[in-house]
């Protein structure tokens, strides 16, 4: 495999897969690897889910693209099933998480503009990740990712995640805030959950209501059943004005969505936003098939049961060494002692255990397995990780 013509934007692992099925990835020589990462929270239904494969194959042979200059029946159908599941009013289909977030952040600016703001600010969180387009990158916390790109730092107020007092303080200090934009669980930033769990979202929404700000959730990673609900906010009584998603939405087929409700509905009109590819017949039919599977199976319940099982099995075995777990459903963080050297863990898990994992926040093993993993596979994820980690203690 030669990467000569590829820009070196990723530190790629020295392996590639030629085939995937369910929770398993296979190399050219058919060596199976247990996938507890699913392409970074993307293939929630497992690799090559038959219903999704069928949707892709049928639509690829029927009609792939017409552009949004025309009505797209599958986009209407995908919009209905998605908005109904997400409890939102309408959707704009994009092609990725960053694009969905770009739409959300543009909406917030338009919302402010219509009220006469000169240069509005959006509250975002430390350790957040929202994407790589300029506006979504500006909202992202990681200074290394932002370095050199002249990000629009003055348009954002960055506060610690999970702390409602700092939001109240920001409301007193600034009169130009138009929205809060937050991940219900921070994925890239360390699998961080708020101390009071999803109640934090209710507190944030209350502040938004009090100050007439938009309450905007980035569910690019937490959405589409990942945490055991269609969207993570549904674990709470909170309701966002703007909701973005991508990743699991297409189970590997690229598509993103920005949904709106109530006062955020109707802000975008003809010409104010768009995408040549957004919501093609092919991508939309895939979304419809993913939501059809989620709605007509026990997959989301399975994500909760198996996610808890994986966490409990690991903490039962390694809790005595200071290992703890956090997350929801199949979005799992296994927190290792801070002084532990984790630099080789991803490579060792792959080579010694044939297990695909990821490390985030320096010392947190991030597990994002398929939502429909069997008990035998969940047991193997836990046991392979325990076998990998135990000798280090
Ligand atoms: C919470 C969150 N938002 C946005 C993004 C960006 O999504 P994409 O890589 O599809 O642009 C990601 C990707 O990791 C994410 O986790």
TrEMBL record:
<dbReference type="InterPro" id="IPR005814">
    <property type="entry name" value="Aminotrans_3"/>
</dbReference>
<feature type="binding site">
    <location>
        <position position="132"/>
    </location>
    <ligand>
        <name>N(2)-acetyl-L-ornithine</name>
    </ligand>
</feature>
<dbReference type="GO" id="GO:0042802">
    <property type="term" value="F:identical protein binding"/>
</dbReference>
<dbReference type="GO" id="GO:0003992">
    <property type="term" value="F:N2-acetyl-L-ornithine:2-oxoglutarate 5-aminotransferase activity"/>
</dbReference>
<keyword id="KW-0808">Transferase</keyword>
<dbReference type="InterPro" id="IPR015424">
    <property type="entry name" value="PyrdxlP-dep_Trfase"/>
</dbReference>
<dbReference type="InterPro" id="IPR015422">
    <property type="entry name" value="PyrdxlP-dep_Trfase_small"/>
</dbReference>
<feature type="binding site">
    <location>
        <begin position="218"/>
        <end position="221"/>
    </location>
    <ligand>
        <name>pyridoxal 5'-phosphate</name>
    </ligand>
</feature>
<feature type="binding site">
    <location>
        <position position="129"/>
    </location>
    <ligand>
        <name>pyridoxal 5'-phosphate</name>
    </ligand>
</feature>
<dbReference type="InterPro" id="IPR049704">
    <property type="entry name" value="Aminotrans_3_PPA_site"/>
</dbReference>
<comment type="similarity">
    <text>Belongs to the class-III pyridoxal-phosphate-dependent aminotransferase family. ArgD subfamily.</text>
</comment>
<dbReference type="GO" id="GO:0006526">
    <property type="term" value="P:L-arginine biosynthetic process"/>
</dbReference>
<dbReference type="Pfam" id="PF00202">
    <property type="entry name" value="Aminotran_3"/>
</dbReference>
<feature type="binding site">
    <location>
        <position position="276"/>
    </location>
    <ligand>
        <name>pyridoxal 5'-phosphate</name>
    </ligand>
</feature>
<feature type="modified residue" description="N6-(pyridoxal phosphate)lysine">
    <location>
        <position position="247"/>
    </location>
</feature>
<keyword id="KW-0663">Pyridoxal phosphate</keyword>
<feature type="binding site">
    <location>
        <begin position="97"/>
        <end position="98"/>
    </location>
    <ligand>
        <name>pyridoxal 5'-phosphate</name>
    </ligand>
</feature>
<dbReference type="InterPro" id="IPR050103">
    <property type="entry name" value="Class-III_PLP-dep_AT"/>
</dbReference>
<dbReference type="GO" id="GO:0030170">
    <property type="term" value="F:pyridoxal phosphate binding"/>
</dbReference>
<dbReference type="InterPro" id="IPR015421">
    <property type="entry name" value="PyrdxlP-dep_Trfase_major"/>
</dbReference>
<keyword id="KW-0032">Aminotransferase</keyword>
<feature type="binding site">
    <location>
        <position position="275"/>
    </location>
    <ligand>
        <name>N(2)-acetyl-L-ornithine</name>
    </ligand>
</feature>
<protein>
    <recommendedName>
        <fullName>Acetylornithine aminotransferase</fullName>
        <ecNumber>2.6.1.11</ecNumber>
    </recommendedName>
</protein>
<keyword id="KW-0055">Arginine biosynthesis</keyword>
<comment type="pathway">
    <text>Amino-acid biosynthesis; L-arginine biosynthesis; N(2)-acetyl-L-ornithine from L-glutamate: step 4/4.</text>
</comment>
<comment type="subunit">
    <text>Homodimer.</text>
</comment>
<keyword id="KW-0963">Cytoplasm</keyword>
<dbReference type="GO" id="GO:0005737">
    <property type="term" value="C:cytoplasm"/>
</dbReference>
<dbReference type="InterPro" id="IPR004636">
    <property type="entry name" value="AcOrn/SuccOrn_fam"/>
</dbReference>
<keyword id="KW-0028">Amino-acid biosynthesis</keyword>
